[in-house]
Batch of 2 targets.
Target 1
Amino acid sequence: MELFLDQFLNIEIMRQAAPLLLRGLGMTALLCAVVVPLGLAAGLVVALVCRSRYRAVRWPAFVLVDFFRAVPPLVLLIFIYAGLPFVGVRPSPFAAVCFAFLLNTGAYYGEIYRAGIDSIGRGQWEAARSTGLTAAQTLASVVIPQAVRNVLPDLVSNTVEVVKLTSIASVVALPELLYSADMARSLTYNPSPIVAAAAIYLALLWPCVRLLSRLEHRVGR
Amino acid sequence: MFVDAFLNQAVIDKYLPDILWGMVVTIEVAVAVVVTGIVAGLALAALRSFRLRPVNLLIVGFVDVFRALPPLVIILIAYFGLPNVGLSLSGFAVLWLVLSLVLAAFAEEIFWSGILAIRKGQWEAARSTGLDFPQTLVWVILPQAVRMTVPPLTNRTIAITKNTALGAVIGVPEILMQAQTAQSFSGNATPLLLGAVAYIVLFVPVVAVGRWLETRFAWGRA
């Protein structure tokens, strides 16, 4: 038990690692602040393109969405970070992460929006158009607000996944929370800093997970 | 330049066997994770329906923690932490164990939603025919609940299975690891493209089946 405490919950080492972890947390927050809005916006575009009336537009969009849903995000990230330099583009770790997330989360958010928009009946479109709204106005002020409400649990759930996913940025040496914690681990030969990082993730995400369980069970009933 | 960097025939010939071997490892981990994770999740959901307070608190705690933590964080804690307390697991074992636990947590939550969605009358009717509680659960409730949970469970399972790529970080010789190694030995990006193609070959059919299941078992028709 003492060995366990010393190795996993070593307060002294956690205290030493705290400044590093806090800086990492800052980077994680910055990353989320860029990546989540970017993904939400890209997803909306993806959903609209996937619902285009032209097959020539719709089909390539579906293929791309399935492509980016099939490739693990870490593979995409490594491909961008380690592959692009071979054609003369040298993205910074931050840029590579943002680009990889744009492609991956855009596809996932897109599928969620699409399900939401599909759930809105034709009557809503027709009623809105008949009051004199243009198609764009109908979409923006009638369909999308209702669609988002219908898929809110999925949007929240995907956002939690995106925040968790930012931890893979550590693999390309972006100094976010997990990278800082792993750095502290290798400096101290003690895994406690990673446990501390886990505690931080838990403190941030646990309330969201609780909220989600409630939302999901309500939908289920 | 692009062809030379990403579609170099000599590099393909040399490293394709490694990537194929990586695919085998990825499939092994993926199958092991899916089987263990879903069985464990179903067992936990069944256990939860007995509504024993202390047991359920433990289950909910486990589920919440494994849903809230990034899998890579858990993998690093297990891989670098456990040897320090005298428990040395291979990268393969850590990857399998951690991803199974994560999938079990998500699967439990999904199955439990399904069980809650079954109307009370089903329980009462089954009990009144003389089935006891476990029999009702196994023969009446779970078959209906599981059917309802197919689409969300499929999506979640695919997402977690793709996390096998995280094994590259702890030296499991799966696709990504093989591709990165080959890339640094050859000084050429072709293996990365091969690796991406390998994932596409494995997962596009799975994603397509997921899409089909989603329409087939859509809400309301279930």
Note: Residues 23-175 of chain B form a domain with the MetI-like fold fold (CATH 1.10.3720.10).
Target 2
Amino acid sequence: MARITAGVATSHVPALGATIDHGKTHEPYWEKIFSGYEWTREWEKGEKPDVVILVYNDHASAFDMNIIPTFAIGCAERYKSADEGWGPRPVPDVIGHADLAWHIAQSCILDEFDMTIINQMDVDHGLTVPLSMMFGQPEAWPVKVVPLAVNVVTYPPPTGNRCYALGEAIARAVTSYPEDLNVQIWGTGGMSHQLQGPRAGLINKAWDTRFLDDLTADPQRLRHIPHIEYLRETGSEGIEMVMWLIMRGALGDKVKELHRHYHVPASNTAIGHIVLEPTP
Amino acid sequence: MTAENPKQDIHEYLAELEDIPGTRVFTAQRARKGYHLNQFCQSLMKEENRQEFRKDERAYMDKWDMTEAQKQALLDRDYNRAIDEGGNVYFLSKLFFTDGKSFLQAVGTMTGMSPEDYQAMMVAGGRSPDGVRSIREGK
């Protein structure tokens, strides 16, 4: 039987990918960010997950203004790195787990989550940067990936509560998959940042810290944070944190925090990273 | 489990989104206004389109059903105006990258600060939310 063994969250700032691709991770500005991921890189070598369900948002790459799915699950065999305007990132193709992905899609639909099924798409920095942060620059990614793209660009995005509940449904889907698989779920994006207008550059460390604390201490509070609070307190792009709640919802009632890293800034953004383990 | 969520009134929800200083939330209204502008930006994901755009920006943009104000905002690289015209930053980022600019460089131009001052503000911990949470309540 497949099982979800851990949840990982991380920001997915595009500049982190560029820094890795250009070999600049040891520059002082970037080193302060990357050093906080060394623990996780070692831990992942021991954990050896078979599959990562990778919750992210597409940044106007695979989905333009013609089709805006709220929850889209990638059921393809493989995904190429998207050309976001400076050429595709030089990373390996992302290999899907089509069978598990279709199983999750079917299970979630019967569980009343109306998923959009994607059989062909390119994946942008939202998905490839987290893989690079956790696994560096391998010849091939050491895991298969089920991409789960969430609309957090065109309003309204899904509520935090809906995201959390989807996570719970994904957990039910995974545990009903017959093959013995070690599955992790990652929530990506955030933390506080605003990429537009005169208010750009907004960071709220106190709010972010409480969010990180409550992933363990009080996840039921987090699922009811309204969109307007993310916007006011964490900047217009801080709304990405609803995606962390899909990850959290999939881990069950109680979790143990194994690792945390928080740093300001990476480009315009507060970097947040946490590793959680479900506990009985 | 507390699966129940109080249903939000759509009118109150949308009104609140307009109450944040210096921020344009990408609502349906903006998405409709900016449809062609954003689709133009997304076309820059193809190298052949970037080349054609660089050769003659105006001529390439004339192929898109944008208003004059939208085209001018983009030609001026005035991203606040582009957002007022319905642009979304993730679509606009295809233009940043076509120009060889990072998010940090392009986003900073919207604040009225110099690139150096903006970068210094970020390194010092970013902009505080104090005073820029709500227009109505001035806090």
Note: Chain A touches chain B through 58 residues (CB under 8 Å).
